[in-house]
Amino acid sequence: MLLDSGFWIHTSRMNKHGFTLIEILLVIAILPTISGLTIVSFQRFQIRSDLNLASEQINQGIARARLLAQNGKDDGAWGFYASNGTVFEGLSYPTRTIASEEYYPMPSTIQISGLTEVVFSKGEGRPSATGTIVLTDLTGEQRQVNILSLIHI
Predict the structure, then answer these.
(1) Between the CA of residue 17 and those of 13, 14, 25, 28, 60, what are the distances in Å?
(2) Which of the 8 DSSP states describes residue 23?
């Protein structure tokens, strides 16, 4: 190395051709930690996504059943069975017309409680029951879908 004064100074350094043991151990310690945090975050995201999907599926199924009842499709009442996401024709799920069913699949990670079946009257689309469908995910987070009666003014 040449200094400003014009003298050469010889430095003896070892050429570094790899990683030290400490560097390797740090990487080995950091990577699993980052991986673990990423996996946990992804699982939480997936669970929350399932809850949002179930809520949307129930809202769409209820709206579809009400629309079919109001339009008088097949001259009958239409309902929605939340436990398995089925739009059905008939006065109740057990006595439904199976050939007319439509499905809105529910994620298996979601528990459904509260009101599980609602039937809408032909023409008016008035619900047979009012109440709340409660959706609960694996972490205990909940969403509620309220079924309200129709009020004509």
Answers:
(1) 12, 9, 17, 20, 63
(2) H
